[in-house]
Amino acid sequence: GYGHLIEQTAAGARRLYDGLYTADLAPFRVVLLPRPDINIICYLVHHPSLTTLDAVNAFNERIYSLMSLEVAGATPEYIISRTRFQTPMYDGAITRLLHELGVCTEDDWKRAGSDGLVVLRSTVMDPFFAAPPPAPDHIAGFITALRHASDAALG
Prior knowledge:
alpha+beta, 5 helices
């Protein structure tokens, strides 16, 4: 039934989360929000050259542009969405994330106002996303696509 489908997509999301958690994308680093209990994974990508909140946001916006349908005629292999963590809605949830990024203080983030922090999202909609072989390895495929988009976004 429907409940089984929801659990399968959530399990696929957790497998993608685990894949992102263990992926070696050096010099890039995936900063993950907590492990999902639904089918949505939230994360952002960081690079040592990004030393300000504005730089991190611009970089993740470029990744989003490369992996979304935002640009007319785009045909990304994997499609992501994004959100902005803004004050005051995310005041209680942002501390660990900003600490892990190391580019600004919570006060700096609050001063950014509506710019907030750009957070990328992947929604697992296909219950077979993380199916075992002989199905395609979409987790490895997504990580490769994210690496390519990160390389391109860095310029």
